[in-house]
Amino acid sequence: MSNAAKGSAVITIPGHNQNAELPMLAGTIGPEVLDIRKLYNELGVFTFDPGYGGTASCESKITYIDGDEGVLLYRGYPIEQLAEHSTFLEVACLLLNGELPNDAEFAEFERGVTRHTMLHEQLRSFFNGFRRDAHPMAVLCGVVGALSAFYHDSLDINNPEHRRISAFRLIAKVPTIAAWTYKYSIGQPFMYPRNDLSFAENFLYMMNAVPAEPFKVNPILSRAMDRILILHADHEQNASTSTVRLAGSTGANPFACIAAGIASLWGPAHGGANEAVLKMLEEIGHVDHIPEFIDRVKDKNSNVRLMGFGHRVYKNYDPRAKIMQRTCHEVLGELGVKDDPLLDLAIELERIALSDEYFISKKLYPNVDFYSGIILKAMGFPTSMFTVLFAVARTVGWISQWKEMIEDPSQRIGRPRQLYTGAPMRDFVPRNRRD
Ligand code: ACO
Fold first, then answer.
1. Best probe residue, ligand 1, of 238, 295, 302, 311 (max atoms within 8 Å of C-beta)
2. Fewest 10 Å CB contacts: which of 195, 225, 429, 434?
3. Residue of 71, 173, 164, 157 lying closest to 123 (CA atoms)
4. pLDDT attached to residue 3
5. Catalytic residue status for 226
6. SS3 (DSSP) at 9
7. What is this structure's pTM?
8. 260 to each of 226, 230, 237, 241, 417, how far by Cα in Å?
9. Those residues with Cβ within 8 angstroms of residue 218's Cβ, 6 or more apart along the chain or in another chain
C-alpha cells in the first residue's frame, strides 16, 4: 500500500526542548492526515482521542464517506448508482476484489459463493443448544464463531487461497445461518439454500418458505431486499468493522473475527438502531405525541435519543437514508399498505426534527436505520431479525476489510495507548493495617 506524502508538520510542545517533524499524508480524496507514528519516540507524548473521532486507524481503498456532503462511495462508485444499477453479489465482488467484474469474473464469483451456501450438517445441532426465545443475534454470533471449528483445512490466514475460500464461506453461509436462527425461533423446519435463486431471493426463500408447499419470491420484494443489502454492505471504519480489524490484527481466524464484528454490531448505537427505531415509533404511538417526545429527546437528563438520527461521520443527510425512504414507499405500495401508521409517524417525526433548532445545530439527520425498520416490518421480518439482516450484508464489508488488512504489509497488531488517571505507584498495605 502507499500514500503520497504531502509535506510535513512540525510539532512543538511547551516544556519539551525538541521538535518533531511529522509527515502529512494525502489520500485520493478526503482531508489530509498527520502521521503521528513517530510522535512518541521523538517527543515522548501520546495523542488522546477517545472514540477515535480524529484518528485514521488504517489505510484503506474500499469505502469513502464525505460526511459533510453526504457522499458514500464503494471503491469509488456512488452508493446511489450501485443501489440503482447493480446487485448485491456484484457489489460483494467489487468490495472484495476492487473492481466491477466482467461476465466471466462475475460467473466465477457467483459460483464461488453458491458452492458454499450449505452448512455442515453437524452445525444443525448447534441450534438445538439455544433456547427457542434466544435473540437471533446471540445465535448468529455463536454459530458464526463455531464455523472456525469446521474449516481447519483453510484457516491459514497467510495463504491467499485460504483467505479466498474463507471469504466465500462467510458470504455464503451467514445468510443460511441467519435464516435458520429465525426458523429455529418459530419452530419451523430449516430450509436448505437454493442455488438457482439470486442471493436476495434465496435469503427470502430460506426465511419464508416451508417444505409443505411451493414458494414464489415476489420480485419487487427481492429487489428491495437486494438494495437493502447493498446499502448495508460496507461503511469504512465503523465500530463493528474496527472490531473485526482489531481482532484480525492478532492473527485470529476470519470466522472468529466476523463473530466479534457481529457482537459489536448488536448494540443499539450501531446495528441495533433499526430495531430501536421501531420500538421508539411504537412507543410514541401517535403523531400527537411527537412534540412531547421531542422535548424528552432535548432534555439532557432524560437519556432519550431520537433513534435513527445522528451519525459519527454524516453531518448531513445519510445518502443511504434517502434510498431507504424511496424503497420504503415502493415496498409498502407493492404490499398494498396504503396508510401505515408507523410510516406516517416516521415522516412527521423527520419533518419536525429537521426543522427543530436542536437537531439543526447539532447537524443530526436521519441515518440508514430510520426507514429500514419500517420496510423490514412490512416485509414480514420480526423486529429481532433486523440487526441479523444488517449482519448478512455487512459480512461482505467485514471480510473485505479483514482481507485488505491481512494483505497490507504495514499492518501491525492493534494496540491503543491510554491516558492513565488512576492511582500513582503505592505500596501494598496488609488488610489489618488498612483504615
Ligand atoms: N438524538 C438526540 N441527540 C443526539 C442524537 C440523537 N439521535 N445523536 C446525537 N445527539 C446529540 C448528543 O446528545 C450530543 O449533544 P451534546 O453535544 O449537547 O452533548 C451531540 O448530539 C453529539 O452526540 P455524540 O453522542 O457525541 O455523537 P456520536 O458521534 O458519538 O454518536 C451516534 C453517533 C451513536 C450514531 C448517535 O448519533 C446516536 O446515538 N444516534 C442514535 C442511534 C442510531 O441511530 N444509531 C445508528 C447509527 S448508523 C449505523 O450504525 C448504521
1. 311
2. 434
3. 173
4. 59
5. no
6. strand
7. 0.92
8. 25, 22, 15, 9, 21
9. 334
H helices, E strands: number in the chain: 18, 6
For the CA of 300, the nearest atom of ligand 1: 13
The C-alpha cell that represents 289 in the structure block: 405525541
Is the separation of the CB atoms in 400 and 305 below 8 Å? no
Q: Catalytic residue, from 311, 318, 329, 344: name it.
A: 311
pLDDT at 270: 87
Respond yes or no: is residue 311 known to be catalytic.
yes
* Ligand 1 mean position, distance from CA 358 (Å): 12
pLDDT at 301: 93
Residue 435 in grid coordinates: 483504615
Which amino acid is it at 17? N
Q: What is the pLDDT of residues 311-352, one digit of tens each?
A: 988 988 899 999 998 898 889 888 888 777 888 898 899 999
Which pLDDT value is given to residue 338? 75
Helix (H, G, I), strand (E, B) or coil at 96: helix
DSSP assignments along 250-300, one per residue: TT--HHHHHHHHHHHHTSTTTTTHHHHHHHHHHHH-SGGGHHHHHHHHH-T
In sequence order, the 6+-apart residues with CB closer than 8 A to the CB of 345 are: 281, 284, 285, 286, 287, 290
CA distances (Å), 202 to each of 58, 119, 210, 344, in order? 35, 14, 13, 31
Atom 49, ligand 1: residue with shortest CA distance: 270
Q: Which residues of the chain fall below pLDDT 70?
A: 1-5
| Cα 232 from Cα 394, distance rounded (Å) | 6
Residue 71: what pLDDT?
A: 95
* Those residues with Cβ within 8 angstroms of residue 143's Cβ, 6 or more apart along the chain or in another chain: 123, 126, 127, 177, 180, 181
Question: Helix, strand, or coil here: 20?
Answer: strand
- DSSP state for residue 154 in the 8-state scheme: G
